[in-house]
Each structure stands twice: as structure tokens, then as C-alpha cells.
Amino acid sequence: MAHFDTEYQRLEASYSDSPPGEENLLMHVTNNLTMFLNFHHVYNLHQKNGFTCMLLGEIFELVQLLFVVGFTVFLANCVDYDILFANKFVNHTNSFKVTLPDAFLPVDVCSAHIRDNTFVIFVLIISGVFWLHRFVKFIYNVCCYWEIRSFYIHALKMSMSELPYATWQEVQARIIEIQKEHQICIHKKELTELDIYHRILRFKNYMVAMVNKSLLPVRFRLPVLGECVFYTRGLKYNFELIFFWGPGSLFENEWSLKPEYKRGGNRLELADRLASRILWIGIANLLLCPVILVWQILYAFFSYTEVIKREPGSLGARCWSLYGRCYLRHFNELDHELMSRLSKGYKAASKYMNCFLSPLLMVVAKNVAFFAGSLLAVLIALTIYDEDVLAVEHVLSSITLLGVCITVCRSFIPDKLMVFCPEQLLRVILAHIHYMPDHWQGVYSRGAAQSGGDSHHPHLLSEEKTAWTSRVDVSRRDRGIHLPTSRRREDRVVPHALCHHQPAVAASSRDNPLHPPAERTSPQRGHGRA
Amino acid sequence: MAHFDTEYQRLEASYSDSPPGEENLLMHVTNNLTMFLNFHHVYNLHQKNGFTCMLLGEIFELVQLLFVVGFTVFLANCVDYDILFANKFVNHTNSFKVTLPDAFLPVDVCSAHIRDNTFVIFVLIISGVFWLHRFVKFIYNVCCYWEIRSFYIHALKMSMSELPYATWQEVQARIIEIQKEHQICIHKKELTELDIYHRILRFKNYMVAMVNKSLLPVRFRLPVLGECVFYTRGLKYNFELIFFWGPGSLFENEWSLKPEYKRGGNRLELADRLASRILWIGIANLLLCPVILVWQILYAFFSYTEVIKREPGSLGARCWSLYGRCYLRHFNELDHELMSRLSKGYKAASKYMNCFLSPLLMVVAKNVAFFAGSLLAVLIALTIYDEDVLAVEHVLSSITLLGVCITVCRSFIPDKLMVFCPEQLLRVILAHIHYMPDHWQGVYSRGAAQSGGDSHHPHLLSEEKTAWTSRVDVSRRDRGIHLPTSRRREDRVVPHALCHHQPAVAASSRDNPLHPPAERTSPQRGHGRA
Amino acid sequence: MAHFDTEYQRLEASYSDSPPGEENLLMHVTNNLTMFLNFHHVYNLHQKNGFTCMLLGEIFELVQLLFVVGFTVFLANCVDYDILFANKFVNHTNSFKVTLPDAFLPVDVCSAHIRDNTFVIFVLIISGVFWLHRFVKFIYNVCCYWEIRSFYIHALKMSMSELPYATWQEVQARIIEIQKEHQICIHKKELTELDIYHRILRFKNYMVAMVNKSLLPVRFRLPVLGECVFYTRGLKYNFELIFFWGPGSLFENEWSLKPEYKRGGNRLELADRLASRILWIGIANLLLCPVILVWQILYAFFSYTEVIKREPGSLGARCWSLYGRCYLRHFNELDHELMSRLSKGYKAASKYMNCFLSPLLMVVAKNVAFFAGSLLAVLIALTIYDEDVLAVEHVLSSITLLGVCITVCRSFIPDKLMVFCPEQLLRVILAHIHYMPDHWQGVYSRGAAQSGGDSHHPHLLSEEKTAWTSRVDVSRRDRGIHLPTSRRREDRVVPHALCHHQPAVAASSRDNPLHPPAERTSPQRGHGRA
Fold it and tell me: Membrane-spanning residues where (chains A, B, C) (predicted)?
């Protein structure tokens, strides 16, 4: 890692990993651990709309886990598909109709099936262990958030029922007021919004910084596809495990680095230890890979099949990728502020991306839709004439699949009435995402100048395209906007932010989500400096 | 009723129930009754887009009635469901397919069924009487509107075919012009827009006043649900029956109160008479209740089943409640003006209400949708693999019901990309609905001040929520915005309006629907006085 | 034709059919024919997004032709529908299910069927000849566009992959630059944008002029329907065949009239020759009529059946008619510029037209929807209760057809929440379509004046309605906005444009599609002169 952190070294002298003026205070803070946890939990409880919603959500998650495993095992072992598919007749005494229960095997046959299948038993054990782990965590969470609930009700005087309709700014204002009277944080006389933001966003700020400095290995240059970004939820989880809260992580607790990481001397030794830990985590990932994969496939199947059937157009819907969300995040920006900003830019960004649909794909999609549509037209006409056609095997399946195929094709065909004005759209997007690589500037003003001989559009396309991924993404391969490599050395925003030499951030932290972000006084990242 | 009308008493001295300067004129008006009816009918014919459309609409209504009763009786008595549900075999000589006519019973069996069923005969008689009553009314209407049609063609020089494309302002301008030349109203030299509005809206203005003064018993405090509003079409019909046009109503004819109601002396006696009349109407309602209920269920079933199947999302769609429409109505505001105003505010109001979806319901809906979606996913996958699965009993029903269930759930889940900005939306709504209770004011400016310690949002929610009802509402329980009780005594707008001391109304009556209502010079009701 | 061209005669003295200053140049242009073709092809290749897309598109077109003919012949001759409709049993040895291949006749039976049917053989021969013609044209096009591709890559230095993201203005700018250096056009020292536009749009400008001057017989006065416009793709093709590129057409090559047409002397003789040619082309059309009709029905069936099933609402969707597109086109306006302009006006125009839905149709549609919905409701309820109902013959067909019927009806029922403001919409439309007949002016400002006694709305309606046609239009009867007859004599814009006395057009030709057309400095056609 030594070749990455040249700037970290230069800045290390003036660099302290805790918010300024906090380190010496922490010495005599001993029993306010819960208070530090507090801010994060207080924010979470607000975002999750109160205790009942959070509780219910977590209970449902536990039940979902049980349901997915149980239902899958049931489907695999306890159903006689020959009866469902009418390959075998059922003998009824009083009726000749087949009912669903006829297709279920008796309990003893079913349990014998399960007992004989070692893989099923293995999966059941693994998921049982995982479920117990989740259950323990759930119990812990309930206790923890029960306290936060009391804090809301007794200290902040907000009932859980009015919490969903209070903004975070209101909650924060009350916390600051409370601190003045009751001194809930011992180590500091007065609490500012910035303090609260710092405590909540400690790890997030680190992640943003690491993504912005390209310290994380998320971008690869593949032989055919060119440069692409691989930053999934799984990878993010592993990163957080390694850096923040896993065994042997860099952090002592929720807010401060371990002392040994603050000295430059034992750097190489620490790097070795980190490398070996990463190796072990990698091996654990590899071993658990089949189980995780099966889980993801099952979960995606249960979640998305119905959506694809109902509105197959959602297959082509776009969303901000995990990488994009990390890359476009400001320092000291809470989740709901980021999401509000990105949501405001979504419509324009979506339209912008639709301006650059591949014309080749369009031609192919149009014609595939025609051929599929022709076959479908004949089947529909036959069905309307006489619905006995549906009894012919695979006719209904064909109709369904051809329908899905056509709708997927249609999502690649742009609206004929679309007005092509990418530059105006880009301007709207930038007003919300607040970031533009330096080499976009020519493009931005080209509409007026018309002088630039070399077309930037294809670059724009490949640049922006990766900020989006299909919404229904089974393998959850999230890709993001590429960081222009030239910024890596010049950009001082990242270490500055970590050193808290940013008076503008305080203003940002007071930001009301109702004010459009364009009003912010802090300069736009990257672009503002040009 | 004595405790309600304290203000009525105070104002009674200066109060005349007819437009000013009209009472003495009415003395020597004897034979222009038809002319008074005229304005209302003239407006109706314009709103119904001409004579042919009105005629066709009324004929269709009569046919609908026959159809609903006849079809229901047919379905109940003349169909052999065992054949439809394949519980009984049909013996065909030349084919083995079951056709729809096979399931219909022969005419003699069918008529015997009906003859044996006394309830069916009772229903048939009741609906026959009702239909005849409607038919007589229809004949009367046709004659009446035929005259109006002649008035349009010969007096106003407008053909029926161009009527739909003329605005009411144009029609009105011609009426006023005609009056100058031909003196169609004997009692007055010059006719103004206000006169026309007053004549058309006589009863509506009374209703608006009564709703605004909370004189009508439409708000109840239920044990669990808290205060709720019950103001349905049925109730409205009964109110109109009691006050305006029923036997023994308060009004002599379309425009003037009976003389005995104008004297304060026999007030108690009149109240007693009204009480006994209301009792009798209540008893009549109770007796007819089963028939009305069956009719409403049948009509809702025939009207909405297909809508729910096609787009179940419409179950969650909102509309302005009957109470809200009455409560937000200005005095002297014609139906189309009110609807245009409310339609303009609809989008913002709908978005505003979606900002306050119950988070608890959201969590439950998300998870119910997941479980239902899982089952549906398996059924869909099996069906695509081999459509013989559909032949298994209740599989298709399950697919349909699960699909409906999921779509209903989805209507409770807000869009992930929704931007939360209720105050801006509220501002937009207010620009159209022109009314804000006093205690909203803090909320309105709170975005800037941030000083108010107590959260008003939950109040807002319960306040606004009741202004809306689900569009598909079988029981037609309409609820509306609560009238703040503090206004009851201070608000002089209502009696003022009745006394016509309102010069601003004349301007309002000249209002072009093309001008946004924000340009009106008249102060906003309630809020404008603050 | 003599009575049509009074103005042509008056202007003929100063009229030259070639762009100014070009005629004498053409004398010594001998070998740059390919260069003249070039501009049109260069533009086409840009619009079709590069060589690969164009190639693929043309190949798919050839395959589509084969597919439609082959598939139809197969369906007509090689399928045993009795098996599909379960009127005949299949004897399987191992299973009792009917599969699709069971319904296909063996190859020898099938080919015998075809051989016996002379009509099929006739159709096959005709379509074979047509396909070969298309194939030869395809080969020619490939060779031609391969050269254009080289021109793009080597001369303009644009790769095919970046072409879709370059605007036409960029391509044009490079061509002009290239001309300065390499002198690609021999006959002129400097090439301007106007030159390029003239070359590309030579024929289009003629068509626009002829439509604007009502020289083409596209408007008829029918006994019942009143004046209507008949201008289909087929008619347009025939017009182009007659005037521009067919054997014996008026043009010598892509840019200049035959010399004999430039002299006024042999006018009558030429008119006779043209008349006889038109007669022969008419006879050819009549003979090919059955084949063309069958083709159009088949193609419409294959293209639109699926669309109608999926979203029957598209039946009521509107689009700019072929006549409207021609009538609203500026001189020297490229296809993409016109389409961008019309697309911008589409939304407002569509809303505007929905303001004038026939109220009579609305009443009928509402009630038909109610009756169909009632029947559908019963069928759906029965199906959900027990899906064996679907096995009854024609139940499924009824459900499908009733569903389509209801959705078609719904497209005639306006949204209840629609705000009626046609004048504002008309203003928005005019900002994009740039044209308003003189007699609209009263309507336009009537909202303020309110003085005009005669209602113009019905005229507006019939005027505008014809500018639209239903998007799914089997017979492709395109209708357009009527040209007000009073303009025919006064309007000098048309001959002026042909004589190129229009400095504003040059500015227009430099127009960037990103600039909204409202910024154009050239006066609006027709209206601007008022």
C-alpha cells in the first residue's frame, strides 16, 4: 500500500484522526461510550421512522430468511411435480379435479426426502447458524434502540408517532438545546451540528475519501470491455469488515483509530498484518461463496420474478450505482441528504442516458421485436378465435416469453418524440450532483463555441454509462463514474476534509433538505476549483 | 337547533333570503317561473354539452338501471353454475366442448325459478316503481330541455354542435346582451353576471354556508378513530330533500324561503315540524336501506371490478371528498369553476399526501408484497415451464389474487426517488384551494424560522388526510377537511355572503376559468382575514 | 393544370430552378455527379447512425420481407388447425398432451398444398421479383454507402462509432473545412451551409412548395364528411415517382429540371405527356392494388396486433400526419430539424386535441365501457372463483375482447382532472410549429377581448383535428391541416423561397437543433406577415 499514500505521509504531521480538540478530551471520557453510539443510532431511528417501524422491519427480515429457506426446501422436497404438470393422474373418489394439496407429498415422505439429502441438511445447518446470529443481533438491537426511544421520548420530548414527520434538522436542534441544559456529552461544553455530523459519518467519510483517492481496488481494465468498475454490496461489506468493525480492524471503537496506526514507524508491519487478514477474509468469502450465491439467486428470484412479469420495462430502468453514490457523496453528507440530492438529479440523468442508447442495439431490438411480435400476433389471434389453442403444450409459455422479450426490446428503443438536448440535461444533472471532471468542460460549453474539433460525446457516454446499473441486478454488480486519474495528485479536497479545515462544511451540515442544494455556498468539488 | 344559530339571530334583522332589491320585484313577477328555472337549466345544458348528449346520457341511465336489475336476476336464476365450473358433464351429440349457452337454463325453468322466489319479485317491483319514476322525470326533463335548446338556438344563436366549444362566459355574455334587447326577465331592467350566478347557485350557496358554519351533523367523534367526517352522496341527497325540494321543505320554490320561516316568532314550532319530518325521512331511509345497499353493491361491482383487475393501483388513488369539495367552495362559484380550481391543485395535493404515507403501513406493505411475490414467482415459473399447472384448481385464482394483492401493497410504498418537500407543495395547493386554517400558519413559515418547538406535521396529516378518499369507495364514505372550531364564532364571511354585502363576488363571477385563481382580488377565505 | 399555376407564370421570368449562381457553374461540372449524390448520402448515413446500423437495418428489412411472405404461406398451408382447436384427437404412444409440432403438416403434404394453389404461387412469384429488386438495390446501396463511409473516416476523420454522438452541425462544419483545403466540389470555391442544405433538400423543398400552394390534389370535399385530406405514403411515393425520379420525370438528375420544362412555350405539350404518364402509373397502381393491400394488411397485423393487445390505448394515440409534416415544414429544413420541432410541440398539441374530444362520443364510450365492464366483471369473478370457467368455449376470447373494447372506450373519455385551457396550449404549439392561419388570430386573443360574437372553436377543431391521425393506421390514411384558401393568392413566401430571395433562410440553415426554434429571427410563416 506504500505507493498509494504519498499524500497521506505529507499530511500526516498535521493529521489527527479524531475531530480537532477531541483527542485530549477523549482521555477523560470513560463512561460515555453509549453516548457516542447514540448519535448514529439516534439518526438511524429517525430515518427508520421510529421504534415500531424499525422493530417490525427487523422481525420481518428474520421471518423472510426463514421463509426463503423453508419454502425452497419445501419446493425441492415436498412437491410431486408430475401431478402438477399432469403427467400422472390422481384418483379421487368424489371429484375429477386436481387440487394443489394433491401435489404435496405426505409429511413422512417429505421428511424422509430431506433426511436423505445431505446438501439440504448442510444448507439448513448453515442458514440456522446464520439465523441465530441475526437473531442475537436483533435482540441486541432491540435493547439498544429501546434506550434511544426513551431518549427521544423523555429527553427530546418527541413521541414515536410524530417522529416520521419531523425533519432531522428539528431533531438535531433539540439535541443541541438539550446539551446546553443537561450536558449529555461530558467532554464538551457546547455541541455543534458539525460534531454530530462527524460522529455519525466517521466511517462514511473515510470510505468517500478512499473512493475519491482511488485507494480501493474497484476499477479493473478488462481485455475486451475496457475499464470497468466492480463495487458490489458484498465488496463494500468486506471493506467495512476489514477497516472498521471486523476483528483486528483499524479502528479501536466507533470513532478513533488504534494507537499503533497513528505512528508512521511500524507501517510496514501493519501493512503485512492487514494483508494476511485480507487473505483470510478472502478465503472465508471463497468458502461461503456457494451458499451466498444460492441465497442471492433465490432472493433475486423471489423478489424480481413478479416484477419482471408485471412490468418488464423495469429491467431497463436505471439507478445510481453504489460506486456512483460513494463517488458523488460530499464529505459530511448524511444518507438522506445524499439521496435527496441524487433523486433530484435522477430524472435528468435518466433522460441524459437515454440520449445515448446504442443505435446498433436499437436496430436489433426493433427487428427482434418485430419478429417476436409477428409470432405473438398469430398466437393471440388463434387464442381469441378459439382458446383451446392454449391447451396445446407450451403455447401459453410462448406467449408469456414472447411478451417479455418484446417489452425488453422496447426498453432499448427510444421514444420517437424524444427531443435530443444532452447539454441542457447535463447542466441540470450537474446542478444536483455537484461534480464534473475537468475534461467535461469543453463539452459543457461546446454548444456555444462549436470550435472543438474532437467529439467528446463518446467519452461522456462511457463515463456516464458506468454511473448507472440496471435496477434489477441479480449479481449486484454496481459500477460507478470513473475517477479521472489526473485528479489523483492535485486534489487536496480529500485530506483537507479529513483534517477539518473546511469552514464551509459547517454551513453544509445545517443545510435544510428543503433548500435546493444549488444554494450551497461551498464550492463544487473538482469543478469549483477550475 | 337553537344552540347553533346564535349568529343567524343577530343578523336576522338585516337579513333577507333573496338577493337585494329582488324581494319587492318578486311581488309583481307572476308568470316568469320558467325564466327562473331557466338559468339553472341553461347552465346544465351547457355543462352537459348540448341537448343530444344530455338526452343520450339520460337514456343510457335508464337502460343501465334495467340492465343491472335484469342481468342480476338472470345471473341469480337462469345460470347452471355446475356446468360452468365443470362439476357436471354436458352431453353433446356432435362435439365434446362446453359452450356458454349450455350453462343457461331453459326459459320455462328460469321463469319458474323467478316466480318461486318472493324476494326477487319484491326487488323487481321496487325497481320497477323506481324506474317508472325515473322515466316520468326523464320525459319531463326532455320537454324542459327542449325549450332550453330552442332558447339557445333562437335567442342566443348558438347551435348545439358548437355549444361544447363555447365557454360559459360566452353564453353568459350573450344572455346579458339578449336581456338588454328583449327583456327576457321582466322584473329587472339590466341583468348582471351576479344575478345569474345567484339564481343558479341559490341552494349550493346555502349548503356551502351550512357546511362552513358546521350546522350540518357530518362530523363525529368516534371512540377509536378520533374525529371523522361522514358526508356521503346519500346524506347530501337527504339534506337537499329536507331543505330544498322535498315535500314540506323550507323553500317555497327555487329561489325564496317560505314566508313562515322568515319570522323569528314561530321558530320553535318550525323546528319541531322539521324534526318530525327528518324523523320520517330517516324511517323511510331505514326501510329502503336493504334495497339501496344491494343496489350500491351491485353497481360498485359492475363498475369497479374491471378497473381493479386492470389497474389495481387505482384503489389507492385519491380524489377530493364530497365534504372537501363543499368546504373549499367559494360562494358564488359554479361547478366547473370549482372543479377547475380543485383539478389544478390535485397533482400537488396528491403528492403532498404521499409525503405522509404511514411508515408502519409501508413496512408491512413491503413485506407482504415480498411474501406474495415469492409465491407468485413460483407459480409463474411453474406456469412458464408447463402451463398444465393452470389446470390445477385455484392456481389461476391464486395468481390473480396475489397479483392484485401485490399491486395494492405497492400503492402504499412511496417511490424511492420521491423528493420530500411538503412545504413547497402546500404552498402550491393553497394557491389553488384558497383556504388555510389559522393554525397552519406556523407550519407554513417554519421552513425559514425553525423556531417552533412543537411539531405541527402530524396535525397537518390528520387534517389533510380527511380531505381525500380512495377513489373506488363502495360505501361512499366521504370525509373532508375539519373546520377549525375557533372560526365558528368569528367568521363573518358566511352570513355576509348570504346578505350579499360582497362587492368582490361580482368580480369573481366574471372570472374567466383561463385566468389562474391566484389572480383573484377577493381575499382568501379565512386566511385572508388573518 | 393550367388553372393552378397562375402565380408560377407571373414569377417564371425571374424564376430559375437551380440555386442562384449555380446554373452557369453547372455547365462546366461534368464529373462530380457522385459529389452531388454525396451530400444526401452523407446526411443519410449520419441520420442512420453509421454504416453498420444502416447495413443491419437494410438486411433486416430484406429478411422481414422473406419472413412475412414465408410465414404467411406456412400458416395458410402447413398447419392443421383442427388439432390446434382440439376438434381432432392426436394419438400419441407415450403421452396424452398435444404439442405444437403435432399441428404442423408433414413437408410433402404441405408442399403439395402449395403446388395446388395457384394464387399462392402467383403471390410467391410477385414477391420473389420484388425481393430481387430490393436485393439489387441493397447491393447498390452498400457499395454507395461504403464510399461515404470512407469519406467519413478518411476525409472527415470521424469513425463510425462516434458518428451517432456527433451532431449534423459538426459534420457539416468539417465538410466546409475540408472543402477549403481539398476542393471536394469543383464548381465552387467556397461551400456554405446553404449550399449543402439546398443539395440535400432539393426535392423536399419542391414538395413543401407544392403542398403549400395546394398544387397537389390531396384535399377532397366528400358528401357527408366535408372537406378531408387524403395524403398517404403510397400517394407520396407516386408523386415522387412522377416528379422526381421515375422514368420520364421532370428532373434530369438529382438537382436540375430537364431543359424542356424551363421554357414556357411547350407547356401544353408537356402537360399532356405528364397526364398520360400519370394515367399509366395509375393503371399500374390499380393492377398491383390487391398485392399491395394484402401486404399492408399482413404487415399491419404482424406489427400492431401485439401492440393493441399490450396497450390498447395506443389505438387512440395521435401523431403528426404526413400532410401536416409537409405543410408545417419550413423551406430548407432537414428531417431531423423538422422532427425535433414537431416533437417539441407534440405534447401540447396532443393535450390541445384532447380538449376537443367529441362529447357525444364521450357519453357513448362511457356507457359502452360500463356495459362491457359489467359483463367482464361477472366473467372475472367467476374465473377467480373457479378457473374451470375458462375451459368453457369463448370465455377467454370474450374476456380479451371485452378488455380491448373497454380500453378503446377509455381513450375517448377525458381525464376528469384535466384543466381546460386551449388558448395557452395553442400558444405553446404555435411557438413550435411556427404557423397560424390568419383566421385563427381572433381566437388567439379572444381570451382577453371576449368581444367576438362568433365562436371559432369548432373551426379550430376541424382545422386541427385533421393534422393528426391515429398512430395505428392500417390503411395509412394520413390527413393534414387544411390550407386556408384565402392564402393561396396572397402568400408570396412559397415562390420567394424557391427564388432564394430569403436571407433569413441562411441563418435558419445554420440553426443548431439545441437552440429552441423560438429564437429564430426569421418571421413566422403566414402569421409573421400579419
Answer: 59-79, 119-140, 278-302, 360-385, 391-413
